[in-house]
Specification:
- The protein has a single domain, classed as Metal-dependent hydrolases (TIM Barrel, Alpha-Beta Barrel), CATH 3.20.20.
- Helix 7 runs parallel beside helix 8.
- Strands 1, 2, 3, 4, 5, 14, 15 and 16 form an 8-stranded mixed beta sheet that branches. Strands 6-7-8-9-10-11-12-13 form an 8-stranded parallel beta sheet.
- It is of the alpha/beta class and about 375 residues long.
Length: about 375
C-alpha cells in the first residue's frame, strides 16, 4: 500500500537555492518537488523544509552513558535519551563516536565500547530509535591497546567512519603546553608531579606507537570500506600523511594552512558547530568562521552540543556575506553525506530518502517544528 505525504507552502532549501514550493513524499522517498503552492497537502506556513541533518562526529552519547565520573547508565536508556535529543535537533543520521584505546586516566574499560555498539544494534532491531545511527570509531593511535580494541569491531557493519587521533602533548591539538596544561592539569586538579608524570607517559606512548598504529588502522579501514578521518592536523606534513592514508575527512584542523591544504587535496574539512555559535574554539585553536570566510570549510559537526548543528548554519549565513543559507545548510547535509558515501540522503532531491526537517526562523535561534525520517514523523 502506497503512503503519501504532501508538504506545501514551504521554503524548500535545495542544494543551490531556496524556493517557495511543495514536496511530495511517497513510501519514504521524495517523489516530487515543485515551485508554487499545491492544491492539497499540509500547510507549512512558510517554514523552511531542510534535508535531515547528517552528523559525523558527536561525543554526546558518552555523556549519557557516563553522566558522572565512575557512573555507568543503562546503555539502552542512555542511547534512547541521546537519540531523542539528536532527533529533536533535526539530525536524522548520526555517527556516534566510540573511543578506542585506553589510558589509566580515561576511566573506560576494555569491552565497554563494544557493549555500547551491541546496545545500539539491539535498540535498532527493537525499533527504539528516531534517527539512523552509525558508528564512528575514534582511534587513539598512541594507545598501546588501540588495535586490540579495534579488533572488537572487526565484523561490525555499523562502523562507517574511523578517525586517527593523537592527543599527546606537543602533537596536533595540543602543540603548546599552555593549552595542554589547562585541558589536563587545571581541569583535573593534578599536582605538578602528577602532571609531569602524565605528560611524560603520554609523550613516550606517542613516540612508541602512533606511527605504526596509524598505518595498520588506515590499511584495515581501506580493506573494509570504512571512511578514514584525520584529526587535529596542524602542519603540511600532517596533511601529506593524511593524503597518503586515503583520508577523506579532515577533522578540526588546528591551523589555516592545514585546513587550506586539506581542502585543496580534496578532503572535506570539518569543524565544530559550537565553535561557530560561540565565535571561536574552546581550546584556543582557529575559528570555524574564519575557514568559512576563506572558502575551506566543508562540514560542521555538533561535537558536544546537538542543537548547535541546526543553529550554526544560520549564524554563518547571517555573518558571512559570501555564504548564503543554502550553502550553509550544505555543511550539515549534502557534503557530510557524500563524504562518507551516503548518497541516498542529504539533499531535497527526487528519489532520495525523505529525511526532512521543518524549521521556523525569522531572527535569532531557529525552532525545529517537525522531523521526518524516511517519511515517518519522528519528532
Amino acid at each position: 500500500m502506497t503512503t503519501e505525504m504532501i508538504l506545501t507552502n514551504a521554503r524548500l532549501v535545495l542544494e543551490d537555492r531556496i524556493v517557495s514550493g511543495s514536496l511530495v513524499v511517497r513510501d519514504g522517498v521524495i517523489a516530487e518537488i515543485g515551485e508554487g503552492r499545491s492544491a492539497s497537502g499540509v500547510d507549512m506556513d512558510g517554514d523552511y523544509i531542510l534535508p535531515g541533518l547528517v552528523e559525523l562526529h558527536t561525543d554526546h552519547l558518552e555523556s549519557h552513558y557516563s553522566p558522572r565520573p565512575g557512573v555507568r547508565w543503562n546503555a539502552i536508556s542512555a542511547i534512547q535519551s541521546h537519540d531523542a535529543q539528536i532527533a529533536s535537533s533535526g539530525i536524522t543520521t548520526v555517527f556516534d563516536c566510540l573511543r578506542l584505546g585506553s589510558d589509566e586516566d580515561d576511566g573506560f574499560k576494555m569491552g565497554e565500547m563494544r557493549a555500547i555498539a551491541d546496545a545500539l544494534a539491539e535498540a535498532r532491531a527493537e525499533n527504539r530509535l528516531r534517527a539512523d545511527h552509525l558508528i564512528h570509531l575514534r582511534c587513539e593511535v598512541s594507545a598501546a591497546d588501540v588495535l586490540e580494541h579495534f579488533a572488537d569491531f572487526a565484523t561490525d557493519g555499523q562502523v562507517r567512519l574511523a578517525s586517527l587521533m593523537d592527543h599527546a602533548p606537543g602533537q596536533r591539538q595540543f602543540q603548546t603546553m599552555d593549552q595542554y596544561t589547562l585541558y589536563y592539569k587545571t581541569k583535573r586538579g593534578l599536582s605538578d608531579e602528577a602532571f609531569a608524570h602524565f605528560v611524560q607517559r603520554r609523550q613516550d606512548a606517542s613516540a612508541r606507537y602512533s606511527d605504526a598504529h596509524r598505518k595498520v588502522l588506515a590499511s584495515a579501514c581501506a580493506e573494509r570500506g570504512i571512511t578514514v578521518a584525520s584529526h587535529d592536523d596542524a602542519t603540511l606534513d600532517h596533511v601529506a600523511e593524511a593524503v597518503g592514508f586515503g583520508v577523506r575527512l579532515a577533522e578540526f584542523p588546528t591551523s589555516i594552512e592545514a585546513a587550506q591544504a586539506s581542502h585543496q587535496a580534496g578532503m572535506s574539512v570539518l569543524m565544530g558547530a559550537p565553535n561557530v555559535v560561540r565565535g571561536g574554539s574552546h581550546s584556543g585553536n582557529i575559528a570555524a568562521s574564519d575557514l568559512a570566510r576563506a572558502g575551506v570549510l566543508d562540514v560542521l559537526s555538533s561535537d558536544y552540543v546537538p542543537f548547535s548543528l541546526i543553529q550554526a548554519p544560520f549564524v554563518l549565513a547571517d555573518e558571512i556575506e559570501e555564504l548564503d543559507l543554502a550553502a550553509a545548510i550544505r555543511l550539515v547535509t549534502a557534503t557530510p553525506a557524500r563524504t562518507v558515501g551516503l548518497d541516498d540522503r542529504g539533499s531535497l532531491t527526487e528519489g532520495k530518502r525523505a529525511d526532512l526537517v521543518r524549521v521556523r526562523r525569522e531572527t535569532g535561534i531557529p525552532i525545529v517544528r517537525g522531523v521526518w525520517r524516511q517519511g515517518e514523523r519522528v519528532a
